[in-house]
Specification:
The structure is a homodimer of 451-residue chains. The two termini of chain A are 40 Å apart. Chain A has 2 domains: 2-221, Acetylglutamate kinase-like (Carbamate kinase, 3-Layer(aba) Sandwich); 303-450, VC0802-like (2-Layer Sandwich), CATH 3.30.2130.10. In chain A, helix 7 runs parallel beside helix 9 (263-269) and helix 10 runs antiparallel to helix 11. The longest helix of chain A is centred in the first third of the chain and has 26 residues, at 108-133. In chain A, the strands form 4 sheets. Chain A has an 8-stranded mixed sheet with strand order 3-4-2-1-7-11-12-10, with helices on both faces. Chain A has a 5-stranded antiparallel sheet with strand order 14-13-15-17-16. By secondary structure, chain A is an alpha/beta fold. Chain A contains 13 helices and 17 strands. In chain A, 50% of the residues are buried. Chains A and B meet through helix 8, helix 10, strand 14, helix 12 and strand 16 of A and helix 8, helix 10, strand 14, helix 12 and strand 16 of B.
């Protein structure tokens, strides 16, 4: 049995959904289908999730919502029309869209979460209707029905592993395909709460593990995961297979094809993942598998980079002689609900690296003023933009010299690094770099290693 | 005015002290003399400080102390005899040695601190007597007299900077040389408390800053600080001058010539330091100076290594998504009064590096069991011996490619690194390595860079 997940671009319109239908019909093992909300149909289009968030905002601001409601309805209706689904089949979807604004929510966060979750929630209902209409028995499965529980973090929820038991009880013996909306679960109080953006991958992984699937297929719009971002290097090498940990490290630093948190259920359940292309379903795609299944041929599997970081630099003499120095800094971070990514230190120097997409300017200002007042460093410097490059490969385990192949081409091009962190992870080397140098550094490293 | 400090090997016997006398007499600017306890006279000799610690132990165990007392007395007497100092001059020293065992102490730690401090305390008194006997007016200055205050950490005390004021009031207008014992100060309650071992360097630096000395001379048994440990590389390059920060980084990783904490008062007071050789006083030695005074000629000033570290490796998925994860680990460390050195992290991995000379096995066991119970990592590994190499040079600031010159020779010799930490400090690159590979790695790096 396979759990098969489709991303937003695979579900953007009727034409794309037709491909999805064909893919599902071609393989009876594709029993459980996890779907995202309809994505962009063209470059400047808006995703349905973004439309729903505008609708949420307008509702909160008590603005006129007629137009945005019509736009959202139209997206679903146009998909239905493609398949000549009778209009009355969509009446309950329309009602749900309108009802969203009239419900009571525990907080603004839960309101936003519920609006956003409806992109998937409505789409799964619609897709079940369309599949039945086209003659393939299908049933919409509400995450509530299978007890997909999450914690109380409304818009970046964490999955409650107790749910694997109830998910595992889902009846797969019927002939119906089961259509499950991705991206959200329910809190113990019954509120919808979403994973972080892109979280449909997580739902797919949870379903695959809970149901002990043989394979978790993840359909997207690329035929493989490439060893480097194709916008940096033309026609880069495709990765045929890689390990779970390699995927995690690469997605951390910008490989957005697969959500990094979605790997965990797969690892824990030993579920193989296959990234495939809805528009080229016969291509083998990329397999993400346990380390025992991979025969490595090259030291480096992929090179990722992301400029979403920021850094704080601190200098203070005898910094590391004080028990509790870093502890006091971390207490300040916790006070402002800030988590950090990495903390390389010298004898008298400490750099703290943050994911700036997780920070507001207010948090940064408060943190900086508290550190200045309570820690009294000799130097305190905020670096608002910081790039990270991850060079990843199981082949680097116990292999001498990978670092030389990484830094030598940078020296040649006179590109300087702000940080080198090797050894914390056995399968990757992390580099810190000025954001504007990041792409050319990646290109230099890729060219040296892969060509 | 110069503050001139002599280490234990320069004061081990009468012959050595004669050299010290000649050095002091040769320069009227050598007004303040800071002395250590008599050190080893030959390879398997015992330092007086170690004899005093045995005496402390025997006292606590209520064992017979006659022999150890005689051994200690003999060390001082044999120095006095060399200068034909009349025996009655040493009567009050003998009395002080005996009296040590009869005094009351606040705690075992204060007992050990007082016994250890007497190595310097008695030696400074003896040296003042001998200098006077030889015709050079000299006066013993008790740190109590100049208000050299320290905090309540009996055996690894921190200096109270308020003391600079009282030290600055010391009368330097007399013709006497002032003989100050190194290594210890007094708490506010009047107890002797020592700096960490080698702490006479700290006393010298404090005196130099408090008295605004023109130069802090630090006499030891080498004619210069070398760019690499002479036991690893034969006839290494001598360092003629380096900056304060370079010295700090090098002494952190094993350059024991100068105590790393002793740099701080010098930096703060802008005091130049000159490391010189008692046995070759005309050699220029090594100057440690502010960065503005150094003309750099090579990217790397020195390479140090030390195997005094240990490491803890932790693996846990989504480790860095949790606000407060590291905070909880640091709280466990603080609970057991453990400070850490460095904490390189990957996405799901965290390595914590410790100075194992600061740890007891009991602390380690307690920390490991608390981390296992409270943090529940997927993997928890204790690495009892871990080497660190520091490649240090102001010339590395903004210089591209230093890392290549460091890792390339290691690749050639097939030496693998466990950690590379570049960027936390602007003037050094820190490498983690298996202790048994450390020396050959240093040799390879030195050869590549210096030859």
């Amino acid at each position: 049995m396979k759990v098969t997940k489709f991303g937003g671009s695979s579900l953007a319109n009727g034409q794309q959904l037709q491909r999805v239908y064909d893919i599902i019909r071609a393989d009876d093992d594709r029993k459980v289908v996890v779907v995202s909300a309809p994505g962009k149909r063209f470059k400047d289009d808006r995703k349905v999730t973004d439309l729903l968030l505008s609708y949420a905002q307008a509702t909160l601001a008590d603005e006129d919502t007629t137009e945005i409601i019509e736009t959202i309805k139209h997206r679903y209706h146009s998909i239905g029309e493609f398949f000549e689904l009778p209009d009355y089949e969509l009446a309950d979807l329309d009602e749900q869209i309108e009802h969203l604004a009239r419900k009571h929510y525990r907080s603004f966060d839960y309101l936003y979460a519920a609006f956003a979750a409806h992109g998937e929630y409505l789409n799964a209902q619609l897709i079940a209707k369309i599949f039945n209409h086209l003659g393939m028995p299908a049933r919409f499965v509400d995450p509530k029905e299978i007890g997909l529980l999450v914690n109380d973090n409304a818009r970046s929820a964490t999955f409650d592993t107790a749910s694997y038991t109830t998910i595992g009880e889902l009846d797969l013996s019927t002939s119906e395909r089961l259509i499950v909306p991705g991206f959200f679960g329910y809190t113990r109080s019954g509120d919808m709460a979403t994973f972080s953006r892109g979280g449909s991958d997580i739902t797919g992984a949870i379903m695959a593990r809970g149901l002990r699937a043989d394979l978790y297929e993840n359909f997207t719009d690329v035929s493989a995961i490439y060893a480097v971002n194709p916008s940096i290097v033309e026609h880069p090498a495709a990765i045929q297979q890689m390990t779970y940990d390699e995927m995690r490290e690469l997605s951390y630093a910008g490989f957005a094809v697969f959500h990094d948190e979605a790997i965990i259920p797969a690892i824990q359940g030993g579920i193989r993942i296959n990234i495939k292309n809805t528009n080229d379903p016969d291509a083998p795609g990329t397999f993400i598998v346990p380390p025992t299944e991979v025969q490595q041929t090259r030291p480096v599997t992929g090179i990722a980079n992301s400029n979403r970081f920021a850094a704080l630099y601190l200098h203070r003499y005898l910094l590391n002689k004080q028990v509790g120095f870093t502890l006091r800094i971390l207490e300040i971070l916790k006070r402002h609900n800030i988590s950090y990514e990495h903390m390389p230190s010298g004898i008298d120097d400490l750099t703290i690296i943050f994911d700036k997409t997780m920070l507001t300017q207010e948090q940064v200002d408060n943190m900086l003023s508290d550190i200045a007042a309570e820690i009294k460093p000799d130097t305190l410097k905020w670096i608002p933009s910081y790039g990270i490059i991850m060079v990843v490969g199981e082949g680097m385990r116990n292999r001498v010299g990978a670092l030389t192949e990484i830094v030598a081409p940078l020296k040649e091009r006179n590109i300087s690094l702000q940080m080198v962190n090797q050894g914390a992870s056995e399968i990757s080397i992390m580099l810190g770099i000025q954001p504007d140098l990041s792409d050319s550094a990646v290109e230099a490293i890729y060219t040296n290693i892969f060509k």
